[in-house]
Write a structure and sequence with these properties.
By secondary structure, this protein is mostly helical. It has one domain (2-65). Helices cover 38% and strands 5% of the residues. It contains one helix and two strands. It has one helix at 2-31, and strands at residues 39-40, 64-65. The protein is elongated, with a radius of gyration of 17 Å.
Length: 79
């Protein structure tokens, strides 16, 4: 589990600067009427049922880009 967390953190450190450049290009293309990303999330919620405080729970949501430009996700929050 710790190894996955470390690997995820390293991936974010290296990918976030590249995402910023992609986001600027995406904004310019959208302003010019060019290609646009289209996000699709087939299942927006997940019910774990009864939860117990000491257990760990995980669920992966599927996110698809149905558009014809890069989809940049800047922030994800539970809620």
């Amino acid at each position: 589990m710790k190894r996955q967390l470390v690997m995820s953190a390293l991936a974010l450190v290296f990918l976030l600067p590249a995402a910023g450049g992609a986001q600027n290009a995406q904004k310019k293309a959208a302003a010019a009427g060019g290609p646009k990303p289209v996000i699709e999330i087939p299942k927006m919620t997940h019910d774990f049922g009864q939860l117990f405080e000491q257990d760990k729970y995980a669920y992966s949501f599927v996110v698809r880009n149905r558009g014809n430009a890069d989809l940049v996700i800047n922030d994800v929050r539970p809620g």
